[in-house]
């Protein structure tokens, strides 16, 4: 099974399809972008990888509308979409064979390796020429930056936080507008929220999601998972031990966690939706699932920032558009212009929000702030205008000033897999030794790093 981080990314691929790059009709292009000279004008065609699947005709319809609007406002520029989600196992070979689209929607974890392997086009001049470039959060831009050059357009992002049941908070004498902001408070809240039928907290520990959430907790503690060059595993540190000790104490000393374990994110969301648990770790995009799958009353739920223990940070993930280094500059410019138009043009965003709201889809779920200043204020205003969720319930999350830290890139999923069993052990065995378990995981994982950087 794919890790939750991968599933989140796939959800972003699907949910952003209506704003993603589009298609002219349904024809397929054999190669990548092309430039065709006419008698008086030059027509430039660029390909993008985010055509929605045939199973979602509604999304395809919206997708095509955005394309038509773009082509009308950008004469001579044509966009062809393909349903070709990014695949890290084949991307390098396809770049070498010039078979990738001119613009590819990828993940925040990918640019470091892609830049190292020279598999991305330099778009520094293009993106710096965009009127809102200076509004980008610097930590977001750094995801696709190297040596003063920029190789991608960050598109959307999420940060993990705490979902909680506001009714349970009130019943336990806790202020539902003030979720816990420190590890100590979080542990105390979980104890206060537990009852004979409700657990204070439930955590993931399988399908690579134990390692994913462990990384998030590590960031809240100010620790690192790998060295900056990706050559050394660092998660066996005292900070790593402190995370496992906290979870173990909550499970066996406080008995504030579920007795049953080995959960995925889907499992913990179900526990939250069915009033079996008061708090879980989740990304804000799950509000849509909470409403559509469980018919939950969103007024009953809040979202707070990750409780901190010295790190002032949380794990972030999301999507980023990168460009084929073998495409011509004219084609890359056309693809870049479309990515900016379809994702950040305020009129396009407003039309999308209006359509989503009319269709009963969740609008207004908090997201990571990609931008600062006036542009972000304009985005916030549109989000508020069409919101159909209780925005006041997420104020603690949106007001938090946390550093956004991306997932480690080197052998990420294998690292998560190595940590799954560690998290499982401390949640199922009262005699588990956190320090010993982490050192064993480091010994298991380090050879993979050695092989990947040799």
From TrEMBL:
<keyword id="KW-0732">Signal</keyword>
<protein>
    <submittedName>
        <fullName>Sugar ABC transporter substrate-binding protein</fullName>
    </submittedName>
</protein>
<feature type="signal peptide">
    <location>
        <begin position="1"/>
        <end position="30"/>
    </location>
</feature>
<dbReference type="InterPro" id="IPR050490">
    <property type="entry name" value="Bact_solute-bd_prot1"/>
</dbReference>
<dbReference type="Pfam" id="PF01547">
    <property type="entry name" value="SBP_bac_1"/>
</dbReference>
<dbReference type="InterPro" id="IPR006311">
    <property type="entry name" value="TAT_signal"/>
</dbReference>
<dbReference type="InterPro" id="IPR006059">
    <property type="entry name" value="SBP"/>
</dbReference>
